[in-house]
User: What shape does this take?
Amino acid sequence: MHDRQSLARAFRQLLPDECVIFREEELIPYECDGLSAYRQVPLIVLIPYTADQVQGILKYCNLHQVPVVARGSGTGLSGGALPHEQGVLLSLARLNQILEVDCDNMQARVQPGVRNLAVSEAVKAYGLYYAPDPSSQIACSIGGNVAENAGGVHCLKYGLTLHNVLQVTLLTIDGEQVTLGCGGYDAPGLDLLTLITGSEGMLGVVVEVLVKLLPIPERQQVVLAAFDDIETAGDAVAEIIAQGILPAGLEMMDNLSIRASEDFVHAGYPTDAQAILLCEVDGTDDEVSEEILQVREILLQAGATQVRTAVDEQERTRFWAGRKNAFPAVGRLSPDYYCMDGTIPRSQLGKVLKMIGEMSERYNLRCANVFHAGDGNLHPLILYDANNPGELEKAETFGGEILELCVAVGGTITGEHGVGMEKINQMCAQFPDEALQTFHDVKGVFDPHSLLNPGKAIPTLARCAEFGAMHVHAGKLRFPELERF
Amino acid sequence: MTMDRDCSEALQTTVLDAMNNTEALQLVGSGSKQFFGREAQGAILSLADHRGIISYEPTELVITARAGTPLNEIEAALLEKGQMLPFEPPHFAGRGTIGGAIAAGLSGPRRPWGGAPRDLLLGIKLLDGRGRILSFGGQVMKNVAGYDLSRLMAGALGTLGILLEVSIKVLPKPPLEHTLTFSSKEQDGWSLIHTLLRKAIPITATCSHGEQHKLRLACNEQRLKQIQGSYGMLTVDPQDGFWQALRDQELDLFQQQKPLWRLSVPPAAKLNLPGEHLNEWSGGLHWLISDHPASEIRTLVEKQAGHAILFRNGDRSSEVFHPLQPKVAELQQKLKQVFDPKGIFNPGRHYSHY
Assistant: This one.
């Protein structure tokens, strides 16, 4: 057991006073991240200014066996930055400098607390931008993006965080600094950079990131297509790809999301449609003109009831505003919502949405679906009211069932939000014990005493045994009718 | 035609025996990259019979195949649907398997725009050094459940396990690509290429050799004419097969018996090293043929934030890959312990310490 007062005293030896937060009322703002259903007040919050200070903190924590949870902007949706009751919450918010913009190499060296959008804003004058654009990009930090391997609406063409980070400087729990990746296109040795990316703060603390920058496309244009059937919309997506087009963004929304967004931002969506697709292409003026014509033709052939090309930049922004505000828009329909993040092979979309519809009836909770259709990443938003006793638990069970369905059709429980605290039970459905044990062994390589973000991302085998016992009723697996992948 | 076959069980038995007897195994696909890495040791375990495309769904942009499947076979299947392996893997001597391509982690001229094996690998089935068959990743583009242990295998040279199956993201192949050529001083050549890149001109490969520069552009005829109109010095090179010859190191330059270095650096890096140079990837990859001392090459490249691999020839019993920071070497060694505690897979092929 660690004691708050003595830890505070110890850290005030290492850090300026204002970096050490330990009064109960000042700790409250850190009790949760973007997933507010889980809350835990940390023992202490540390907000250092420099990487050297981070190093000092880690050395102290390693020596005294104090758990450490790193936090960027706290926008994560899986409880990955949920504090540890016996630990330090290490905020990297003050490491917020863009250290270098290198236009010749199209790279920027940034500290982990720099906001995602701030990178693109800083390099816009040079005609460059940073491609990954999670919906929270106004607020979320690059360090957090690396920890979660954040995605966004342009992943299909431009990749995830993994594909846009060249190098990170990582501090291991013993305070050693390692550089992973390279200033060039590949790095020597095992590719530890891929291992760190998306590791949810379990293996080390990132204190510097070298990101890749891309030239801003000359033109972007978006087409909105309406469908009276969601499966037809899914088939249209497959057809666009089959025709050799790689859209910059390809998003789908179902009727409940369409209506919610339309009420909220007046994007001009057809509210009677069962599904809409937003398909964005980018490139030079001519290329875009040509591809837009192709896309329109494919969509009409595929059975779209309506296809509209944004007439100007304002309309394009409005079409996207509807999609980008889908979460808060759905949030207006209900006191609370619970956002899921499974990925499925696109061909399974119709089946999965139908089954989610059935679950929605069974649980008597509404569910809106927003879909990164290009890369198969599905965000069902379950509507509930936490003030009704038992409804949060019901929403969680519903969500868990959706994730297990994603696994059963050959997908994964999380495409871009991470496992964190939230999906830890569903990890048991996705991975057998041997794989989970391997994850624990890998964790042990970097963090032998399990001090970094303990209890997150990878469930213990004991937990899975318990979860399995709870889940397999009378020896029956969920979704027995589905072929297992 | 060779039959598709699943040899997982037989391979598992071999691995279990090797593990029990602590016998080294040298993993070999088609043997096209035997020249690469440090000197191989151990009994040869051929993976060539473990072959066949397991699934390919063009609209999902994913192909899954057994490791021993020849690259030629995979690329032919993709081409039929107008798709490609975006990392343009080398086929050295017309051979090469998909497992070998991933394990070696090597990419061809399209690398900066299409990605590397690590970027495109979505999932694996691995036979590890304890004889366990483990699956990591999957067949979907976005997957952050658990640590990304599949991508860790890309470029690991088989030191962590046998890749039984790999799932790889594929992309539409540009319908038309053109080769343009121009002559200029080395630095001016780089500047022009860089200018084109900054203007988002659809470059998919570059090559500079002395004062001769070549570019590959993915665009239609009309756009090609526009680009030529704006940059008068670019002439169309009708010669076919250059990029493939570059990818597979069939150009004359690569036929020398001197040490061939592969230098990975930030594209704008200036490398002043004695020897013959050729660079790709808009300057991000330099091939250097030189007898210059290894330590001096490495020091200079490291100063430019890059790293150097002794790619062919030279002394293959000392380190050929770039030395690692001690802590990184320690982490690697421990990871090796997780997957291959007895050290049976390709010992010493990557680094001398594991």
